[in-house]
């Protein structure tokens, strides 16, 4: 069998010429084996008509196998010639023939150096795209963070507006005075809370003693 890669032929046919020849060889070989089995069975049937025949089935099988080896040697010799002809004249694309899908290479020829330069440019563009995509993602994350901060600031502003309204309701318009007023009320609330907690503890101790 030929060991030439025949890559261009494989591109055109969709299969390697060597694979095609191997399948043809195996098909012919199978037919040869089947034919010898048929010949052997016919001979055995013919011998049944001659009961006094001194030839045994074993001798027939031995002769059949010998004939099969002879036929296979002749077949291999002829097939090697047929393979050479088919690979050269049928399954071979001449060097001057260009496939339709490869005509673009002839129209826009590039040297190895030019092709490498294009590859380097593509790699650079990919790296630049990845950097810009990463920067865009960082900007989107920062924008989301700014939205969160803005929402918190709006809540604080609303809280101050509510605080100012409360102060106005209590007759205090100055923010410092309002804050001092709220601080005093907070302290009073804390004192009341502590007093409630102490009374609660005393009640629990009293319940335990009871």
From TrEMBL:
Q: Which residue windows are coiled coil?
A: 115-146
**One biological-process term from Gene Ontology?**
kinetochore assembly
Cross-referenced Pfam families, in alphabetical order? Mis12
Q: Which InterPro entries match?
A: Centromere_Mis12
Q: Which GO terms describe its cellular component?
A: MIS12/MIND type complex; nucleus
Localization recorded for this chain is: Chromosome, Centromere, Kinetochore
Q: Which UniProt keywords apply?
A: Cell cycle, Cell division, Centromere, Chromosome, Coiled coil, Kinetochore, Mitosis
Instruction: Note whether Cell division occurs among the keywords.
Output: yes
Primary location class: nucleus
This protein's source sits in the domain of life called Eukaryota
Q: Which family does it belong to?
A: Belongs to the mis12 family.
Its recorded name reads Protein MIS12 homolog
Its source organism is Chauna torquata (Southern screamer)
Query: Which gene is this protein's source?
Result: Mis12
């Amino acid at each position: 069998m030929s060991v030439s890669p025949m890559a261009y032929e494989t591109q055109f046919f969709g299969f390697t010429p060597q694979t095609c020849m191997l399948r043809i060889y195996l098909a012919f070989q199978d037919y040869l084996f089947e034919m010898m089995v048929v010949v052997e069975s016919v001979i055995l049937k013919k011998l049944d008509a001659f009961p006094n025949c001194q030839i045994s089935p074993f001798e027939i099988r031995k002769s059949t196998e010998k004939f099969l080896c002879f036929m296979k040697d002749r077949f291999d010799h002829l097939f090697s010639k047929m393979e050479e002809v088919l690979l050269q004249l049928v399954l071979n694309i001449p060097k001057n023939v260009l496939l339709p899908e490869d005509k673009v290479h002839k129209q826009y020829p590039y040297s190895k150096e030019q092709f490498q330069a294009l590859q380097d440019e593509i790699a650079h563009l990919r790296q630049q795209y990845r950097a810009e995509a990463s920067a865009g993602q960082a900007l989107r994350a920062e924008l989301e963070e700014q939205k969160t901060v803005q929402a918190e600031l709006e809540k604080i502003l609303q809280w101050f507006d509510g605080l100012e309204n409360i102060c106005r309701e209590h007759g205090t318009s100055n923010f410092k005075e309002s804050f001092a007023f709220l601080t005093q009320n907070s302290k009073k609330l804390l004192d009341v809370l502590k007093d409630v907690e102490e009374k609660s503890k005393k009640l629990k101790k009293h319940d335990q003693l009871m």
